[in-house]
Design goal:
It contains 5 helices and 5 strands, in the order βαβαβαββαα. By secondary structure, it is of the alpha/beta class. Strand 4 and strand 5 form a beta hairpin.
């Protein structure tokens, strides 16, 4: 059994381009996502957390700065768990989602999308991640 409290838990937040709900710095939605993710991690006793935040970034592309850093940290073995609020925070291209799922799998990283009920500990939920993402794409 992996001791999840000893490894980095990445909390990924993203807000798309054009959010005007700001109080100077981070958007209020990012503040809310961070609080939601921290509460979830705390409830699961995951104490070694690190935020990766792409504020005002489109979900159409994977070359977002915080996302790219998070994947790099995954590939370097620094991260054991990636948590995001839901699949809409991730990426709109289901093939890219499938590639990212494979990166997580190859590096033994647990992936959780809270509001979609996805947790890679249950492989059945992970297999549907790209398809859930297709359904959340906006035209």
């Amino acid at each position: 059994m992996i001791e999840y409290h000893n490894i980095i838990t990445a909390l990924y937040s993203r807000l798309s381009v054009g959010d005007e709900d700001r109080d100077g710095g981070e958007s209020n939605s990012i503040v809310n996502q961070k609080a939601f993710l921290e509460r979830y991690a705390r409830d699961k006793k995951l104490i070694n957390i690190r935020h990766y935040i792409d504020d005002d970034e489109s979900g159409r592309f994977f070359d977002r700065s915080a996302y790219t850093q998070m994947i790099s940290d995954v590939e370097q073995g620094k991260i054991g768990i990636v948590i995001m609020k839901d699949m809409t925070r991730w990426e709109r291209d289901y093939l890219q989602v499938g590639n990212a799922v494979e990166i997580f799998r190859r590096n033994n990283v647990r992936f959780i999308a809270i509001n979609n009920g996805i947790d890679s500990i249950d492989q059945n939920t992970l297999e549907f991640a790209p398809f859930i993402n297709i359904m959340s794409v906006r035209p």
